[in-house]
Design goal:
Blueprint: E1 8-12, H1 35-48, E2 53-58, E3 87-91, H2 102-108, E4 113-119, H3 121-135, E5 138-147, E6 151-152, E7 158-159, H4 161-172, E8 178-180, H5 182-190
Parallel strand pairs: 1-2, 1-4, 2-3, 4-5, 5-8
Antiparallel strand pairs: 6-7
Helix pairs in contact: 3-4
Length: 191
């Protein structure tokens, strides 16, 4: 992948609601505490190279949700705050493509390659990556710029955040996307 490919960076749901100390709201402890830092590293690279950037924001239709518009949790985290001219996509479901004009914007810009980072690996990231793959985009999901929370299974078994994260990525790799680390991705683009 080169800069001439115009890969788009899509930052999914890096919102203040995930900074909340109430981890039980999300299911339990989170993995990958450096996810936002790595997302910022990629965001800086994209900005320096004038590559397309899309910030996706979950806007829950449930007024009690941390992500409902008007609640502080709906705001982007400071570390990835959009700049003027960077596209903001508002969604109300797991996929960044459903009920939005993301695909139309990507197609209008003739973008064929996507780099996806954000929250959470097994939810909105996975759903968006699967749809991107199905739409035919060459998609990269950045394993150290995504994160997941612990989950409780249907029979009460607890799964660690690491297992949720790793199995979500394993399900995506070589089927819907290429799973890659931040520094390796930047090196590939610099070729």
């Amino acid at each position: 992948m080169t800069k001439q490919d115009k890969p788009a960076l899509i930052l999914i749901d890096i919102q203040k609601g995930f900074e909340d100390e109430d981890i039980e709201y999300w299911g339990g402890r989170r993995n990958n505490p450096e996810a936002e830092t790595n997302a910022r590293k990629l965001l800086d690279f994209w900005r320096q190279n004038n590559l397309p950037i899309f910030h996706v924001k979950h806007c829950s239709t449930n007024p009690n949700s941390k992500f409902a518009e008007g609640n502080v949790g709906n705001d982007f985290q400071e570390i990835v705050q959009p700049k003027d001219g960077e596209q903001i996509i508002k969604k109300s479901v797991n996929s960044a493509f459903i009920g939005t004009d993301l695909k139309q914007q990507l197609d209008r810009l003739n973008i064929k390659k996507l780099v996806i980072v954000g929250m959470t690996t097994d939810q909105c990231v996975s759903t968006s990556v699967r749809m991107a793959g199905n739409y035919g985009y060459e998609t990269f999901v950045v394993l150290d710029a995504t994160a997941a929370f612990e989950k409780v299974g249907a029979e009460g078994q607890k799964y660690s955040a690491e297992i949720i994260h790793e199995t979500a990525l394993a399900s995506l790799h070589k089927e819907f996307a290429t799973v890659i680390k931040t520094d390796e991705l930047i090196t590939k683009i610099n070729i």
